[in-house]
Write a structure and sequence with these properties.
Blueprint (H helix, E strand, L loop, with lengths): L30 H11 L17 H6 L7 H6 L1 E7 L2 E6 L14 H17 L7 E11 L10 E10 L3 E9 L5 E12 L6
Antiparallel strand pairs: 1-2, 2-4, 3-6, 4-5, 5-6
């Protein structure tokens, strides 16, 4: 049985002794610093112009501040943010053989990740400073198989309804010519405090 190296403890303000997750003014969590700690843990450096802080920005400002649309997960999976407006976010990527299952087509988790990113990003784009979200539920319907020959696909997420504590969004994953490959829905929990690890 393989052995794995122990994980390095997380770094950043959320993980420091004495961190106050109360969400009270003056105690806003610096999500930009947490993002930097994620990059550091991966042995990477954030791109110039990476998001500075979600705590001081609206969700839309935060989404628009993502330089070049790149985040660590998107870099790994080959997708990036291409559009962000109030209640609507689009990620795009090209499926590749590295995303294949042993059966010879792209793993459904790749499409689900694009849809989750787009739908969650759409919800985030509507939030005021100091608010964030986490996915409560994700539902994906696969319509067509993705392969390395599919070409560039776009995952567009749109908010259906945003309340004080939950939001619902839908997403469509379309390929060249507007061909539908998958669609999904999500329910997001809206938070004012950092999520408990």
């Amino acid at each position: 049985m393989p052995t794995f190296a122990p994980l390095t403890p997380l770094a950043g303000p959320m993980h420091e002794p004495g961190f106050d997750p109360s969400g009270q003014p003056g105690n806003a969590h610096d999500w930009g610093a947490t993002l930097y700690s994620v990059f550091a843990r991966l042995g990477e450096k954030p791109r110039p112009g990476s998001p500075a802080s979600l705590g001081a920005s609206t969700g839309l400002e935060f989404m628009r501040s993502i330089s070049g649309g790149g985040l660590p997960m998107g870099d790994t999976l080959g997708f990036s943010l291409v559009e962000a407006e109030h209640g609507r976010v689009v990620f795009a990527g090209t499926p590749a053989p590295a995303h294949y299952t042993p059966l010879g087509w792209v793993h459904g988790g790749w499409a689900a990740t694009l849809l989750d990113s787009a739908m969650g990003g759409a919800v985030l784009s509507m939030l005021p400073p100091g608010r964030l979200l986490t996915t409560l539920e994700l539902k994906v319907n696969y319509v067509r198989t993705l392969t390395g020959e599919t070409g560039l696909v776009r995952a567009e997420g749109r908010v259906i309804n945003a309340g004080r504590t939950t939001a619902i969004a839908e997403g469509h994953l379309v390929g060249p010519g507007g061909r539908l490959y998958a669609h999904g829905t999500t329910t997001c929990l809206i938070l004012s405090d950092p999520p408990v690890k």
